[in-house]
Amino acid sequence: MAKISISLPDELLNYIDQKVDNRSALIESLLKQWQKQRQDEALAAACAVIDELELGWESEWQNIAITEWEASG
């Protein structure tokens, strides 16, 4: 696994240390959530384009995609 280094203001670092035991795990978790959110947004945008272009999505498939997207967020 690659390592990275980030700089945070002392007051933010102190706040994080008061709230969690493992700040690295917190940062990793936040980045994974951000990545998933970006992927979900891209999927939603693609679904919107398909809907606008009327490329043949049946309403049942569209509803399933929307439901899955809402459940993931």
Core attributes:
73 residues, 3 helices, mainly alpha
Question: Can you describe this structure?
Answer:
- By secondary structure, this protein is an all-alpha fold.
- The chain contains three helices and no strands.
- 75% of the residues lie in helices and 0% in strands.
- Helix 2 runs antiparallel to helix 3.
- It is elongated.
- The mean pLDDT is 88.
Short account of what is shown:
With 73 residues, the chain is mainly α. It is built from three helices and no strands.
Oligomer: single chain
- CA-based gyration radius: 19 Å
Give the number of DSSP strands: 0
Q: Fraction of residues in helices? A: over 70%
Q: Biggest sheet: strands, sense, closure?
A: none
Mean pLDDT: 88
End-to-end Cα distance, whole Å, is 27 Å
Structural class designation: mainly alpha
β-strand percent reads under 5%
What are the secondary-structure elements, in order, as H or E?
A: HHH
> What's the total helix number?
3
Overall 3D form: elongated
Chain-wise SSE layout:
Blueprint: H1 10-19, H2 23-53, H3 59-72
Helix pairs in contact: 2-3
